[in-house]
Amino acid sequence: MDYSVKLKAGNDFPTLTAPTLDGSEVKLGVPQGEATWQAVFVYRGRHCPLCTQYLNDLENYKQAFADAGVDILAVSADSKQQLEAHLEKLNISFPIAYGLTEQQMKTLGVYISIPRSEQETDHNFAEPGLFIVNELGKLHVVDISNNPFVRPELGALTRGLAWIRNPDNHYPIRGTLDY
Fold it and tell me: What residue stretches are annotated with the Thioredoxin domain (predicted)?
């Protein structure tokens, strides 16, 4: 059997960068502004209408993430031109990056799909993944899917993050038992 490597909860988040439209590079998992955690949303790309809807929905939860001290970053394997075209359908104000390489996707442990046709897209692409990195650079929450229909419900996610981040709850990183 062929097993792919998946990031484990509690491990250091890998050092990865991706370009942004302003010409700079962003470090995945490194929060911006006053946030001490970062939620990295890996999405399939412009060709995916479910991704467009999810990213637009995510905008509605931006304040809830901020209230929990969690910064948001979205990233895909799309090209600069594909992201620029996608922005016409997106109504977002959080940072978005592009150009994830296949090696970076493998490092993240996301599922990778081959396009069904050139009309879909012109490159292999990542299936959805969510990586929430804490202030120590550790992977605190991980969720990966092999299709666009299964993603965390954003209301439950933000409520859960607020609960985890509440120091009175002493909530550890879950799922760390080796087997």
Answer: 7-166
Distance between CA atoms of 8 and 14, rounded to whole angstroms?
Answer: 11
pLDDT tens by residue, 71-92: 999 999 999 999 999 999 999 9
On the 0-12 / 13-18 / 19+ scale of CB atoms within 10 A, 57 is middle
Separation between Cα atoms, residue 40 and residue 30, nearest integer Å: 9
For 107-133, the pLDDT digits (tens) are 999 999 988 877 778 888 999 999 999
Domain 36-165, CATH: 3.40.30.10
Counting as low any pLDDT under 70, the low residues of the chain are 1-4, 179
Q: Give the whole-angstrom CA distance, residue 41 versus residue 53.
A: 13
Alpha-carbon span 57 to 116, nearest angstrom = 26
CA angle centred on 59, ends 103 and 39, rounded to 5°: 40
CA nearest to 95, candidates 47, 14, 156, 40: 40
